[in-house]
Design goal:
Elements: H1 8-19, E1 28-31, E2 34-37, H2 42-58, E3 74-77, E4 80-83, E5 87-89, H3 91-94, H4 106-118, H5 126-136, H6 147-161, E6 175-181, E7 186-192, E8 195-196, H7 202-208, E9 213-217, E10 221-222, E11 225-226, H8 229-239, H9 243-250, E12 260-262, E13 268-270, E14 273-275, H10 280-292, H11 301-308, E15 312-313, H12 317-326, H13 329-334, E16 357-363, E17 375-381, E18 387-392, H14 398-413, E19 418-420, H15 425-430
Parallel strand pairs: 6-9, 14-15, 16-19
Antiparallel strand pairs: 1-2, 3-4, 4-5, 6-7, 7-8, 10-11, 12-13, 13-14, 16-17, 17-18
């Protein structure tokens, strides 16, 4: 076992995952030494149980009978109650929440928010509700318990003790997807007949199964770009001033304008996409919204093009998007593809003699000793890893440190050919 017994849970978990790999997410869930077997019918469950026991027997793993439970319709697992109806919060885990006293320190807030965060799947709008509390945990934020904090605290307690049931999806029924975003958080959920199903990640599976999904949002948006009535009005006016688009308007219904159509709002579209006129201001607004908005977050050229082409079309669109992304200063600074290559790893020089090359650093912030020392000067030989720990005062001058260095290091090991330090100002000035 690597690095001693402290890694025992991780090593054991990895071992259990490997021996049950072919069963995971089919009818087995493993968490360290807990094995959960689930099935649709009693007959199927008996077969699954036999297969798991055979694996345990083959690997010489033993289960204590007094700790095993079989043929359950409902069980408690990792703080949740799982049954055929769905998943609920374990009442025993949140029973003490109602008697929870008001937090009086940052540590108290972190403990309470940590418990609430574990069940955030069951609390709609969790980030918005908990925002006043998390604000108090920020560095250098004064601890002032306001009315907003009290409301947040009481609301979280109420939500935890009255949480809904996360039901299993019925693939034959339509789903409603709710999503919302604000400065405090980003939320999403799936509902079926008014019941919360699971988080939005399931939408990808639903789409593969060609299920009916109804999207419900409180904001008019389309992909990565926001479409407003004022924006459409500006597009309509500029289209009438664009020579090429005016020509296309005159050719509608002919072979030279296949795919182009005039919408009910008077906007020319190409295959359902808005035809953007050659107007620098409008293009700039679209490009900035598609690249720098809070929801786009500086995508690459291909991703930005794929996002925008769902809504817009204009001549030379891909080229202009490529040029815009290439000129983005933030992308140039932050993205890996624009950074200088780190180069090949170089082998460190093999030293030939002990104490010929040394390193040094200070350990500071220590309690003051009887001899007025409040720091340790650590000097290490790079070859033998031998070290000296010299008690010093952080306010000592270079001259005093030099005297100590000569007395404790040079006297024993001689003068080294190289010294590596953390560029302390006392050393870089005259050392």
């Amino acid at each position: 076992m690597p690095f001693g017994v402290t890694n025992a849970p991780a090593v054991f978990m990895d071992y259990m995952n490997r021996i049950f790999r072919s069963f995971l997410d089919k009818f087995v869930v493993v968490f360290i030494d807990d094995i959960l077997i689930y099935s649709r019918t009693p007959e199927e469950h008996g077969e699954h149980l036999r297969m798991v026991l055979e694996i345990l027997k083959a690997k010489q793993l033993y289960a204590k009978l007094s700790k095993c439970e079989f043929w359950l319709d409902e069980l408690k697992f990792l703080g949740h109650v799982i049954s055929a109806e769905g998943i609920t919060v374990d009442p025993a885990k949140v029973e003490s929440v109602l008697q929870w006293e008001r937090p009086r320190t940052v540590t108290d807030i972190r403990i309470f928010v940590g418990l609430a965060s574990y069940y955030r799947w069951f609390i709609e709008g969790f980030s918005k509700i908990v925002a006043p509390l998390t604000q108090l945990t920020r560095k250098e934020q004064p601890f002032i318990w306001t009315d907003a904090c009290e409301r947040s605290f009481e609301e979280l307690k109420r939500r935890l003790t009255t949480s809904p049931v996360l039901v299993l999806p019925d693939s034959g029924e339509p789903f409603e997807v709710y999503c919302d975003a604000s400065l405090q958080g980003l939320g999403k959920s799936i509902h079926m007949f008014g019941m919360m199903v699971k988080e939005l990640e399931l939408v990808e599976k639903f789409r593969d199964l060609n299920l009916c999904v109804e999207l419900a949002q409180d904001h008019i948006s389309c992909g990565a770009i926001t479409i407003t009535n004022e924006f459409l009005r500006q597009v309509g006016l500029k289209q009438l001033q664009d020579v090429e688009l005016v020509k296309l308007l005159g050719l509608l219904g002919t072979e030279k304008a296949v795919g182009f159509e005039l919408g009910e709002d008077g906007i020319l579209r190409f295959k359902g996409r808005i035809c953007l006129p050659q107007d620098a201001k409008l293009k700039r607004a679209v490009l900035e919204e598609g690249h720098k908005s809070r929801l786009s977050i500086h995508p690459g050229m291909t991703k930005m093009y794929q996002d925008l082409k769902r809504t817009f079309w204009w001549s030379g669109m891909k080229r202009e998007i490529t040029e815009y992304v290439a000129a983005c200063l933030t992308c140039q600074k932050a993205k890996v593809e624009h950074q200088k290559p780190s180069g090949l790893m170089q082998q460190m020089e093999i030293l030939e003699w002990k104490w010929d090359s040394i390193t040094m650093d200070f350990i500071v912030g220590l309690p003051r000793s009887a001899r007025n020392s409040d720091a340790i000067w650590v000097i290490v030989d790079r070859l033998t890893k031998g070290a000296h720990f010299l008690p010093v005062n952080i306010k000592w001058s270079l001259e005093k440190l030099t005297q100590l260095y000569v007395r404790e290091i040079v006297r024993l090991h001689g003068v080294p050919s190289s010294i590596i330090s953390d560029r302390d100002p006392r050393f870089t000035s005259r050392f």
